[in-house]
Write a structure and sequence with these properties.
Strand order of the largest sheet: 3-7-8-9-11-10
Number of strands: 13
Number of domains: 1
CATH class: Alpha Beta
Mean pLDDT: 91
Number of helices: 7
Distance between the termini: 104 Å
Order of helices and strands: EEHEEHEHEHEEHEEEHEEH
């Protein structure tokens, strides 16, 4: 409904009005007033937060107890990170060989630390990477899920963590951990955390995350030390991935021995680094952490094969064949 109103101006001291021009108006008789009810909105946000937390798969701390076939012999933990399954630059022969040894050997376990998949997507900043992937992101994820289920079925998978290549899928609204790792029995660290590993009379605190500030090509384990000092100062072992470098270092902090570990990779033929002046290709991963059940004793083997040969020697001695 339109209504014409007058706009006037007083032109003298007597209050004389002069019509300037007519003004056209609109009368909205049933306009719905918006209501901003801060109490109901905040209540809804609180409920949404609780719903998110209840459905989230990730956690920041977990406790796992080992009960191996040979409880008086050491436990050997395969530190699996940056396998980049799907890429043509990954050494699958070595990866498969290590996987089989861990799966078939008593007292061997696995902790994963991200980038199990290459997972390049077409519409990301790293889109050119799709040309090095021979299977789709979904197929890569299903492969990893299957391999992890096989390890978990034999109680050999202790922990899964996150990786930046895994996280490429978040652009679709999914998370790698929440979609493909959700139903695994082991804990999942979706942004790093602390694993309290109980074994015999000992408890080892393992702080793990895929990457942390302080990475240095001249001092690869520097980021491990920063992660321990600034996030988990009580950790016995700090384990990172991401840089495709391999280094492990025993050092003293707070009056006790610690271990810093950068796990290398299985994507050893990658041309990304060499083309950008970052050094050679990736350094072969497959590090194995050895832990004793009867005293605080931590060592790192350079390969799964080396660790398995040592374990077989211990088993032979135990059985009296040597």
């Amino acid at each position: 409904m339109y209504q014409m109103s007058k706009e006037t101006l007083i032109i003298d001291g007597k209050g004389t009005e002069k019509l300037i021009r007519p003004v056209e108006q609109v009368i909205f008789q049933d306009k719905k007033p918006p209501v901003v009810d801060e109490e109901s909105i905040l209540k809804h946000l609180q409920q949404a937060r609780e719903l998110y937390k209840s459905m989230e798969v990730g956690q920041k701390e977990a406790t796992v107890e080992l009960k191996p076939k040979y409880p008086d012999l050491p436990a050997f933990i395969w530190l699996l990170n940056d396998s980049h399954m799907g890429s043509v630059f990954t050494d699958y022969e070595r990866l498969i060989a290590d996987y089989k040894v861990v799966k078939e050997t008593p007292n061997f376990y696995t902790i994963t630390n991200g980038d199990e998949v290459d997972n390049f997507l077409v519409d990301t900043a790293q889109a050119a990477g799709v040309y090095e992937d021979s299977i789709s992101p979904e197929q890569q994820a299903l492969l990893v899920q299957r391999l992890f289920k096989e390890l978990a079925g034999q109680e050999k998978l202790l922990l899964c963590s996150f990786g930046n290549h895994n996280d490429f899928i978040q652009k679709s609204g999914l998370s790698f951990e929440g979609t493909w790792l959700r139903n695994l029995p082991c804990p999942v660290f979706n942004c790093g955390g602390l694993l309290n590993l109980k074994f015999g009379s000992q408890e080892y605190k393992i702080a793990t995350t895929h990457r942390f500030w302080g990475f240095s090509r001249l001092n690869p384990t520097n980021a491990c030390k920063r992660f321990m000092e600034h996030v988990y100062p009580d950790a016995d072992i700090v384990y990172l991935g991401h840089s495709h470098q391999k280094e492990y270092l025993s050092f003293q902090r707070g009056g006790k021995e610690r271990l810093a570990i950068i796990g290398g990779c299985y994507k050893t033929d990658d041309i990304f680094g060499p083309k950008r002046g970052l050094g050679g290709g990736g350094q072969m991963g497959g590090l194995v952490l050895e832990l004793r059940p009867d005293k605080r004793d931590m060592h790192v083997f350079d390969s799964v094969q080396e660790a398995s040969e040592y374990f077989e020697l211990l088993r032979e001695i135990k059985n009296g064949s040597k």
